[in-house]
Structures are given as C-alpha cells and as structure tokens.
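Hi Y.,

Following your request, here is the sequence exactly as I used it, all 74 residues.
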Amino acid sequence: MGEKAAAKATLSAEFADPSGMLLGFVGRAVEQRFGLPAEPLDGKPVLEHILEIPGINVAIVATGLPEYEAFIGR
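Below is the corresponding structure, written out as tokens. Let me know if you'd prefer a different format.
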C-alpha cells in the first residue's frame, strides 16, 4: 500500500463508515471557504446536509476567523 492510501486508511478508520468517500479540506477558515457550508438551508447549515449523505466522510483542518472555527468545531 502506498503512503497516500495508508494515510487515507488511517484517517478513514476514525469515521463510522470507513469505506465511505472521504472529502477533505486543509486551509484557512474564512468567508471565501466556509460561507456556503455555513449558510443555513432548511434550518441547518449546508455542511450538515452533506454530512447526512450516506457514505460521505468529511475531514476539515482549518484555522482562521473565530466564527468559522466555532462552526467547524461543532
């Protein structure tokens, strides 16, 4: 197994569905990056709708504006 596959397997093991598709983000928590995922849709943020899709795992590593860091930390 290559390094990339090994890293994905290690990270995926942290999720309820380790075989699910992994969406990842590493970067700054700013309006340009988190405005849409934090936007409410039907009473909850868009990111929560994404997290409810079966077989989808989301990993986020970001620092930046306090409001987006708080959103990510939920």
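The helical segments are 3-12, 31-38, 46-51, 66-72.

Thanks again,
Q.
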